[in-house]
Amino acid sequence: MLSLLHRPPALGVKDPWLLVLMHGVGSNEEDLFGLADEVPAPFHVISLRAPFVLGPGSFAWFEFSVAPDGSRRIHTAQEAGSREAIVRTVQAAALQLGVSHARVVLGGFSQGGIMALSLLRTQPALMQAAMVMHSRLLPEVDALAVPPEALQGKQLWVSHGLQDGVIPVASARAIRDLASTLPLVLRYQEYPGAHEIRPAELRAAMAWLAELTA
Questions:
Q1: What is the structure's pLDDT at 1?
Q2: Are 47 and 38 in contact (CB under 8 A)?
């Protein structure tokens, strides 16, 4: 089980949802948990801490290196271990909170969004939707991707900054292009800004979450 922070839904919610948030590399569970007050009332919010320690208060889902040509090489065993740990944690949390997997959303920023997207592609039964912000596809999980029909009816939010210098917007467009070939319900948005969640992006993402529960 991964370390996490939890915010319950509003009082009186009869059929709660669960939003699982995953931070970017070098951050921790406190980061995206700061957005919990913006998340619609029907949601439990849990914010996970990645398992690999980079330094004090600094964690990663997997380590990676960037070549001079911009290509990336990841620590594949760490990435696989993180996916397994996320699955176990989400399954346990959903069971404990009494939330059906049909009301679970996995979301993340940067490397956390990479994990959410990879789990949608490989373990879609774990969730109803993924919320992917400023992230990219992970070629290393291509061989593990489920058949397209297993994604039928699943929802995907993808947003990115036009001036993102950490993960270029071309990476988000690659997600969009792949998603367009799959039976997903895609919401794709680009925003002015760098590697950050701007207010307009956050408002739109939260409105999308609210639509899921309607």
A1: 87
A2: no
pLDDT at res. 66 = 78
**Both tokens of residue 69?**
């040509």
Q: How far apart are CA 76 and CA 17, in angstroms?
A: 31
- Tell me the three state secondary structure of residue 96: helix
134 neighbors 121 (Cβ within 8 angstroms)? no
The topology under which CATH files domain 4-213 is: Rossmann fold (3.40.50)
In DSSP terms, which residues pair with 133 in a beta bridge? 109, 159
Residue of 128, 99, 130 lying closest to 22 (CA atoms): 130
Instruction: Please report, for the chain, the start and end positions of each structural domain, with discontinuous segments joined by +.
Output: 4-213
**Mean pLDDT, range 127-152, rounded to an integer:** 97
Four-residue CA torsion sign, 194, 63, 135, 92: negative
What distance in Å separates the CA atoms of residue 68 and residue 66, rounded to the nearest whole number?
7
The per-residue pLDDT for 67 is: 78
- Give the pLDDT band of residue 68 (cuts 50, 70, 90): confident
The residue among 93, 151, 95 whose CA lies nearest residue 119 is 151
